[in-house]
Amino acid sequence: MVRTAVLLFVIVTVTGLPAVAQQSAFGFGLKGGLNLGDVELKHELEGDAQESYRYGLAAGAVLSLFVNPALSLDTDILYMQKGHTWEYEYREGSDPGGTRGWSYTSKTDYVVVAPMLRITFRGRNLSPYLIAGPEFGFLLDARMERQDKDDGEVRDTSEEDTQDAFADTDWGVAFGGGFEFPTGGAAVFLEGRYSLGMADINEGGSDNGGSQKNRGIYLLGGLRF
């Protein structure tokens, strides 16, 4: 029920943003890109594991409320893929070339709402800016993918639903910067930001397998109208 309500909110809001943006104090934009997803763990993993990013997609819209030409409140509404990957490897017997291993990839998908304060340094052809603010996530889906490997080759892949293991909501802070340049009636922009999750996304908290907090590096681009 909660996830259905979140999806309806996103659809209604995004479809209504262009009409709101017709007012002079508002701007509307579309953005998308890549999230290098990570998770901070507060419990021990069994064995030695190599950790790596989950490369996830991000897409959505942004509504800007301008206080003045240099200062605005930018509210992102994004579909965001988050998560993390752990890889284990060990040698069998005395054979130096024979290795076996497996990897686990946690795949969590969210609707992210992020009201960000943007400070823009206006230039004639290029305008750099800084952004910072809170971020709120609403879980849509969660899965765990396992790959079994022999000598680095994938032997078997399986996936299970892990939605019940995660909290329905998440929150944190994000900060970064970017630049934009005009192209006719719109402006092209590129930005990067770091997302620092503050909430334990593990359902039941640290008493249920230790705490987990989302992290991520967002590489985004798009158009402002």
Q: How is the largest sheet built, in terms of strand order?
A: 1-3-4-5-6-8-9-10
Name given to the CATH architecture: Beta Barrel
Q: Compute the number of structural domains.
A: 1
What is the H/E order?
HEEEEEEEEEE
Mean pLDDT rating? 84
Structural class determined from secondary elements? mainly beta
Instruction: Summarize the amount of helix as a percent range.
Output: under 10%
Question: What is the 3D form?
Answer: elongated
Q: What is the count of DSSP helices, taking H or I runs of 4+ residues?
A: 1
Can you describe this structure?
This protein is 8% helix and 67% strand. The chain contains 1 helix and 10 strands. An 8-stranded antiparallel β-barrel has the order 1-3-4-5-6-8-9-10. Strand 8 (169-183) and strand 9 form a beta hairpin. The longest helix is centred in the N-terminal third of the chain and has 19 residues, at 2-20. Mean pLDDT is 84; it is low at 5-23.
Write the layout of secondary structure elements.
Layout: H1 2-20, E1 26-41, E2 49-52, E3 54-68, E4 71-91, E5 99-120, E6 127-150, E7 153-161, E8 169-183, E9 186-197, E10 212-224
Antiparallel strand pairs: 1-3, 1-10, 2-4, 3-4, 4-5, 5-6, 6-7, 6-8, 8-9, 9-10
Question: What are the key terms here?
Answer:
Porin, mainly beta, 225 residues, eight-stranded antiparallel beta barrel, 1 helix
Question: Gist?
Answer:
By secondary structure, the protein is mainly beta. It has one helix spanning 2-20, and strands at 26-41, 49-52, 54-68, 71-91, 99-120, 127-150, 153-161, 169-183, 186-197, 212-224. The chain is elongated.
